[in-house]
Amino acid sequence: MQPRAVRPSVSLPILTVFSRMAQFQLFDDTTSPSQGPARIAKLRAELTRRGFDGFIVPRADEHQGEYVPKSAERLAWLTGFTGSAGTAIILQNKAALVVDGRYTVQAAEQVDTSVVTPVQLAETSPEDWIATHLPEGGVLAYDPWLHTSDSLKRLEQAVGRAGGKLTPVDINLVDVIWIDRPAPPQAPVRPHALDHAGEAAPAKLERIRRKMAEAKVDALVISDPHNLAWAFNLRGGDVGHTPLPLGYAIIPREGRASLFFDPAKVTNEAGDAVGDLAEFKPISAFQTALDELSHRGGKVRIDSATGAVALIRRIEAAGGKADVGSDPIALMKAVKNQAEIAGSRTAHLRDGVAVARFLAWLDREAPKGSLTEIDAVEALEAFRVETGALKNISFPSISGAGPNAALPHYRVTSSSNRRIEVNQIFLIDSGAQYEDGTTDITRTIIVGDPTPEMQDRFTRVLKGHIAIAQSVFPKGTTGAQIDSFARKPLWDAGLDFDHGTGHGIGSYLSVHEGPQRIAKTGHTPLEIGMMLSNEPGYYKPGAYGIRIENLILVEPRTIPGGDREMLGFETLTFTPIDLRLVEPAIMTADEIAWLNAYHSAVREKIGPNLDAETRAWLENATRTIG
Q1: Containing H/E element for 592?
Q2: Other CB atoms within 10 Å distance of the CB of residue 624
Q3: How far, in Å, are 231, 251, 253, 329, 624 from residue 210 at the CA level?
Q4: How much is the average pLDDT of 70-85?
Q5: Residue 86 and residue 83: Cα distance in Å, rounded?
Q6: What are the tens digits of pLDDT across the range 36-65?
Q7: What pLDDT is stored for residue 622 in this prediction?
Q8: CB atoms near residue 153 (< 10 Å)
Q9: Which domains are assigned to the chain?
């Protein structure tokens, strides 16, 4: 990516090497509400030509990934909505965009609401909307590469309730009208060093095959590129900010595995690293390989979370038996080994220094009144670049001033860019990709003086954060069971937030990794070695937003006198929490002790790596309270 030209506004005296610009994040408005009507009209004309009454456009690619290549951004191209989750249903006389609570405001701003109606998922699911609005006898088309078997079953039930018919298409109808659609990505596939991976690929495959034997399946189709990357210790760059190589793999219970990529992506280094463990084959040979696999008989495991319906149908059409279930790699990948844990600790200390330098700079510069949201993003990235280890950011930074901070997944653009004003809250949620670890941190800062309400809300969020950080729970506990710990201080005041409390984290992979999560939907038991985020929040629309995020590691806990195996969390992130927003009067003595101990650890761990001026700032920012 070519860096953008430097914009003259505020000097960064502490940055002497790097120009003030973002190398890894752009701020252009890539979509507009005005694009929707003409493109939807073209899609409707295509529906008419093919005899269909509607088409489903999920925000997904062939791997059902959260982060997709530009060539798969069909939902954004068609409607203007750029969020990471959403589903559009385009009928001949009406259309809906169903989004969750994170994107309610964004969807209304990004689409032409005279053509597309934003619908909140909490109120109406895509299936319920279809059941209500698809005309009786109507034919609803879908792309079988963009739906799993579970989602297809829900669609079939919805269409059945409407008295309609669900029909697959052999080519995505958006692709038919998307004349200048970008080509699929061809980023190089490279090996991930064993020092960082911590386990050689042959050992991983041996463990995978043991799980396959337990499940009594004869082959495993890896449709999730994250799992493929982990299993074979490979990394790539096919999607933004995540070192992901898009492709597929087939692992038989016996014999050599096959990896399917565009040949132009496979480097000599990757070939040497994989060696005899697997054979690289062109992606064009993948479906033929599924046919050959099916002809041999036996059960073929297809991942229920990422395996497209098209894979299942291809296997069954060739005489094979598709066994839809969980890919065992997902849980293996979630439990980090000692090398990955050590790498993450190192990455977080490195990142903590960069973020602390940024916060000290922000405290000096923001009160002058000329900084913008984009200035903050560029500065933070520059501090991370100065570490000499930054490979990329781990997601587009959420940099929200004042009312923009109330949008949980706000992405600043040149047109939305606000000044960071005095006596307003500024929220920045960001992360970094280092080869030894992936980071994700959110800090909420007051510029000037907070209102009592801001302090109350911030402190309630902090109390919830501390409750998660201090929680101790029996082995077998799920994230859903502890999610409410973070919400109770807000519930006590009649408040809440509309996102999960925490998500899993990859190891130089996706910043959002499952299956573990701390959320109402987090039903996977937490295990020693899993990494998650701890990020409760509060959002007052049109005014301000608050979120405090650290990453945490599941570790064993010993309770004297207890008779159960217990677990707890180690905090991995070390950067100050803004004490100006803390109201000690509504905190317990135990909560104050936790905050003081955390800030003492911040001083100890990152203080020695700061210059004298920033170290003096840190001493004040982490002062003892209470």
Answers
A1: helix 589-606
A2: 11
A3: 14, 12, 9, 11, 52
A4: 94
A5: 7
A6: 999 999 999 999 999 999 999 999 999 998
A7: 98
A8: 13
A9: 35-177 (3.40.350.10), 190-333 (3.40.350.10), 338-621 (3.90.230.10)
